[in-house]
Design a protein that fits this description.
The structure holds two protein chains of two kinds. Chain A is mostly helical. Helices cover 67% and strands 2% of the residues of chain A. Chain A is built from 16 helices and four strands. Chain A has helices at residues 15-42, 57-68, 70-82, 88-112, 121-124, 131-155, 164-175, 177-200, 218-246, 253-288, 306-324, 326-329, 332-359, 375-398, 405-408, 419-428; strands spanning 11-12, 212-213, 216-217, 433-434. Chain A starts with 10 loop residues before the first strand and ends in a 12-residue tail after the last strand. The N and C termini of chain B lie far apart (39 Å). Chain B is rod-shaped, with a radius of gyration of 19 Å. Chain B is mostly helical. The chains are: A mainly alpha, B mainly alpha.
Chain lengths: 446, 54
């Protein structure tokens, strides 16, 4: 039915399977949309946010997807600035994942601000002393960069590419993509960093406060570093999940291994820096404010020292050592483990630096605050996940995301049937959608 | 916020924050304008049909 839109030389699932998948995920998405409308119509009192959890599930999800979407800027940096040309075979997917992550982040913010119609206030009435202003500026601009990087991929759809203007536009955008990628790397460096900087400048919150380099606390650099390390792991993870669901190889191993190796070294250096930062904070910064390390991890039923061990050792050193070892990253199970753990680790880090930091009592009369999100918060957090899955389904079906797919999955040409046999085959229907031979389009269609 | 807005101050925070924002927006706008105008010219001239996919 839609075979004219499917990229040439690749095989896709039957249309009914595709529509069924969209419908199932779409049902959850509609639940999220309903919850989103409740948040807008009834106000933020439908959430379980409070004074201790003003940054709640939404902001954690926001920071987590921004970190995981870091694969787009870092892959772009490696390909266009450093010159790792092999990554051209995964950069499309990295851009798509980044686009989904950043549009999701903006969507979540649109719900979290309560009155999205006033979203432009931060640009016009900007508080130029706030790191979050810088985040808003860079986040919005970088989403623009990702959109610009995503447009040529859309224009390479088999039918759109026939339109001469789109064909030229796509080619021209590819021609100067390095400029856009460099701008994206610049913007990402600052907004990833400033998100970490927000916790690091909280001198009234000893759990988050860190020493500074000029105006930037160490958390500024650690956040950027962790996004560059863990973002590519998420790109690899989503690629592997896509390959598993599609039941075919989409990217050659050497490309995955190269990205995994770079991620491994980034992760190892990051986690060493994180360890030094934690050590200095635990032995010098926090004691200077009257706290010991265990003050932050005792006296409640959830935030224990296990968080620190899980984040640094199990989700930090362990995957880093697997990824930098050739044997480790080339082992099928090893690679899966080594890309899942950093994704958990960076998500946990964002929870700790955004939520635990405000939950810890700092006054003698304070108590540990715990939090359970309302169903509206959960549904609106699942909303962007469903939106992402649907966008991936659509893009995988209709856009040439994986340049190596045809080579890795050649379609054997059946022998030319006689007219009678061909007619019988048509009656039986087709098992899967394969691209139709190119047919010239009518000008109106084009 | 633009320099002619009544809230604007010619101090370092305003210049750094808004300078960075407008610099990024300018680079993206000029880049896109270049690509679009060049594509329009190429379409009108009818050349460059053979550069294929990337």
């Amino acid at each position: 039915m839609d075979s004219a839109l499917i990229p040439e030389g690749v095989k896709r699932a039957p249309i009914w399977q595709f529509l069924l998948a969209i419908a199932v995920v779409g049902a959850v998405l509609l639940w999220g949309v309903y919850a989103m409308l409740l948040c807008w119509i009834q106000g933020l009192n439908v959430t379980n946010m409070n004074d201790n959890y003003g940054f709640a599930l939404w902001i954690w999800a926001d920071l987590a997807v921004i970190a995981l979407g870091g694969g787009a800027f870092f892959s772009g940096f490696l390909k266009y600035i450093v010159g790792k040309d092999e990554l051209k075979n995964i950069i499309n997917y990295a851009v798509l994942i980044g686009f989904i992550c950043y549009s999701s982040a903006l969507l979540i913010l649109g719900i979290d601000v309560g009155q999205p119609l006033r979203g432009w206030f931060i640009f016009w009435h900007a508080n130029v002393h706030s790191m979050l202003t810088e985040v808003a500026f860079c986040l919005s601009c970088y989403f623009g960069v990702l959109t610009i990087e995503f447009i040529p991929l859309i224009l390479e759809n088999r039918q759109l590419d026939r339109v001469r203007f789109f064909h030229h536009l796509s080619h021209n955008m590819h021609g100067i993509m390095a400029i856009f990628a460099a701008t994206g790397a610049f913007l990402s460096f600052f907004h990833q960093g400033s998100l970490g900087g927000v916790a690091g400048v909280l001198f009234g919150r000893p759990f988050g406060f860190r020493e500074h380099v000029l105006v930037w606390p160490w958390t500024f650099f650690l956040f950027t570093w962790s996004a560059a390390a863990c973002g590519p792991c998420f790109t690899i993870l989503v690629t592997k999940i896509t390959e598993t669901i599609a039941r075919k190889k989409l990217v050659k191993d050497n490309v995955i291994y190269l990205l995994a190796k770079i991620s491994g070294w980034m992760l190892l250096t990051y986690i060493i820096a994180k360890t030094i930062d934690t050590w200095y904070w635990a032995t010098t910064t926090a004691p200077s404010m009257g706290f010991t390390l265990m003050d932050f991890y005792t006296g409640n039923s959830f935030y224990g020292i296990w968080i620190l061990i899980l984040e640094i050792v199990i989700c930090g050193y362990l995957p880093a050592l697997i990824l930098i070892s050739k044997k480790g990253r080339e082992h099928p199970v090893g690679l899966w483990v080594a890309v899942i753990l950093p994704v958990i680790g960076v998500s946990l880090n964002r929870w700790v630096m955004v939520l635990q930091v405000l939950a810890i009592p700092v006054m003698p009369f304070d108590h540990w605050a715990l939090y359970l999100p309302s169903w509206q918060e959960v549904a609106t957090t699942l909303l962007p996940v469903c939106y992402g899955i649907i966008l991936v389904l659509i893009c995988y079906r209709y856009l040439p995301i994986f340049p190596q797919e045809r080579e890795l999955n050649p379609i054997e040409e059946p022998p030319a049937p006689s007219e009678d046999v061909a007619g019988a085959a048509e009656d039986e229907g087709e098992e899967a959608e394969v691209e139709a031979p190119d047919q010239p389009m009518e000008p109106a269609q084009a | 916020m633009l320099p002619f807005s009544f809230e604007w101050l010619w101090d370092m925070p305003h210049m750094v924050f808004h300078g960075g924002l407008h610099f990024a927006l300018t680079v993206l706008s000029i880049g896109m304008a270049y690509c679009i105008i060049k594509a329009m010219v190429q379409t009108i001239k009818g050349g460059g049909e053979d550069h294929g996919h990337h």
